[in-house]
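Just scan this pair:

***
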Amino acid sequence: MLSTADYEVLAAFRYTLRGFLAFSDAAAARFGITQQQYQALLAMKTHVGREPLAVSGLAALLLVKHHSAVGMVDRLAKLGMVRRAASPGDRRKVALRLTAKGARATARLAAIHRAELARIAPDFARYMIFLARPVRG
């Protein structure tokens, strides 16, 4: 059974999380992109593997449908942040690559997000310690 304190911490956690997401929306907007497009840039930046990241892989990482990822890549390509190329391993697939502009935007946004996460980390740490306790009842 959850206590009143449990509910209060859950509400505070969600409030802090939503605040971070609102911060992320605003930060990305200053670069002319959405928060989800920033997430796509991060996925491309951090992808490791023998094959380059394809649209299907990006869709899976972003938890969106393939056609949504295609639209996102279209918009990022139009902004000059991403380019498409034929995958070297399978010419039927499209490999996604950050452009220099996309890499610069990703680096600047990552630094901004890291600073904000460092600022709110103590709150998250308190929530996690509290929420990690076993629930009685």
Observations:
- DSSP finds five helices and two strands in the chain.
- The first strand starts at residue 82 and ends at 86.
- The chain has one domain: 4-132.
